[in-house]
Structure formats: C-alpha cells, structure tokens
Amino acid sequence: MYDKVRAIVISSLKYSDNSLIVKCFTQTMGTRSYLLQGVLAQKKGNLKTALFQPFMLLELVATHKNNGTLGRVKEAKIAVPYYSLHTDMYKSAVSMFLSEVCAFVCTSEAPDEEMFLFLEQKLLFFDRNDFSANFHLKFLLDITRYLGFYPDTTHEHLPSFSLEDGIFSTTDESKYTITGATLLLFKTLLHTDYHQLSTVKSNKNERNALLFQLLKYYEWHFPSFRQIKSLEVLQTLF
C-alpha cells in the first residue's frame, strides 16, 4: 500500500552499482528509509537523483512498514523549491553538516510533526535569507527542544554550563563545561531570533569553540553520535 507523505531528505547512500538507500524525516511517519532500485541508471522517470540531496523538501508516494523494512518510492516531487541552499557554497556546507547531525539524531519512526515543521521552517529561512555564520550554532541549540535536552536556563546567571547535566552551574572543574567567551556566545544565541543572527558579533575561533562544545553536548545525550565528516570543511570556510 502506498502513502503520500511530505519528507525531508536526511541522507543518501549508494547501494550496489545503481541504487540508493535514502533516509528521510517525514511529517507523519517519523524517520523512514527507502530503497531506490536502479535510480542511478535511470535516464527517464520521475525519480531523479537530484531530488535526494540533503534537506530536499519532497512529496513522496511510497510504501511504509513498521518493522524497519526499507520502503519503496513510487513517485517523488519537490514540495517547496530552494533558491540558494545547494548553490551557495557556504549554505551548502552548512546544510551538509547539519544533515549529518540529523542523520544521527533523527532515528525514531514515531511521528513528530512539530520537529518536522521546525526543520522545514528553518531550512526555508536559511535558503531565503542572507547567509549568517551563526545559523548552524543556533540550529543545533534549538533542535534540542525536540530531542529532549534543551538547555535549562533557570540559573543562567551562573558562570558555567554543564554539558553533562544540561544546566548552568557554579563550578567549571569538569572539562565538560562551557565557560568564558564561549559561554557568552552560547547565552547570546539562546536568546537571539533567527532574523537577528547577523547582529551577533562572533569570530571564527569563537564559533568553532562553541561548535566543539555543542557537539560534545550531543555526544553526552546520544551515545551513538559520531564524528561529523563534513566538520573540517565547515571550520575551514568560516
């Protein structure tokens, strides 16, 4: 039985000589993986490989089973087009990086429409607005609301943030804490709207220091979280 679903492409992996396994986060069926048999050899048909780039917003007609079985895609089309996400060098690097992060954290088949709408809205904002070097940091912070470990800001006045506990604290003895200038940027981004990200003053070293800590934060809460392959490219560009 085929279902029509809205989906965000998270990753694609070559399978055999001419096929792809595509992982998508869907609006109504959670995270699903699909086998696109022979898609790399097709010269005709509607399943073009360009449709399955990271973070493409699609409408799919596909099969779905709740036992981890790969679905099959009958039809795929763009739900909302991008204008710059995959053509702007900086935006493309950020989208590649964030899609890798999402591949580790978007794993449940349980539907989460709120997180789907968050992803869709923020990706479209990123596509349609001027590039901000702070976007990926803000995104990493905000998506934790839906993953269950958004920072507890109750005692935000305290001088350090514990990555392990997700709270502000009085001690910085552990190496798993955010302090100093990195903490200041962390706090600023927590309270900055996406439209105001360009007003946040930060340099490359400060951003990379916070990014390092945020990835450690993810590692604490997702034991299966691994090194992001595109991280080096991101850090080199900005």
UniProtKB/TrEMBL annotation:
Transmembrane segments: none annotated. SUPFAM superfamilies: ArfGap/RecO-like zinc finger, Nucleic acid-binding proteins. The keyword DNA repair applies. Pfam families: RecO_C (PF02565), RecO_N (PF11967). GO terms for biological process: DNA recombination; double-strand break repair. Residues 4-79 form the DNA replication/recombination mediator RecO N-terminal domain. One of its GO terms (cellular component) is bacterial nucleoid. Keywords: DNA damage, DNA recombination, DNA repair. It comes from the Bacteria. The keyword DNA damage applies. Belongs to the RecO family. Involved in DNA repair and RecF pathway recombination. This is DNA repair protein RecO. It comes from Capnocytophaga ochracea. The lineage of its organism: Bacteria, Pseudomonadati, Bacteroidota, Flavobacteriia, Flavobacteriales. The gene is recO.
